[in-house]
Structure formats: C-alpha cells, structure tokens
Specification:
- The chain has one helix and no strands.
- The relative contact order is 0.06.
- Keywords: Membrane, Transmembrane, Transmembrane helix.
Length: about 60
C-alpha cells in the first residue's frame, strides 16, 4: 500500500542522510590526511636540510 511505501521511503531517507554524513566525515578525514601528507612532503626534506647544517654548526 501507500503508507508502508512512505515509511520505507522515510527509512531510505534516514539511511541516505546517514551515508551522506559518513561521506562528509570521510572527505574531512581525507583532506586532513592530504594536509598531513603535504606537511610531511615539505617538512621532512626541510628538516633533512636543516639537521646537517645544525650538526655542522655544532661540530
């Protein structure tokens, strides 16, 4: 009938909203990870450059 269909539709709607919430959380996580990756990509070479200079200065 019509009423069970509406109830099912409501259930699907809730499910869809939960999935979209999950998706947005995952995209937020993904952007954080890419930011971390960028930080490591640029920070590690910089630290590798700075550390030998620091060692050279102290010795």
């Amino acid at each position: 009938g019509i009423i069970p269909f509406i109830i099912e539709l409501g259930g699907y709607n809730i499910l869809a909203s939960r999935f979209s919430l999950l998706a947005s959380r995952f995209s937020l996580l993904a952007s954080r990870f890419s930011l971390l990756a960028l930080t490591f990509k640029y920070f590690i070479p910089l630290s590798l450059l700075i550390v030998p200079i620091g060692i050279g200065a102290t010795s």
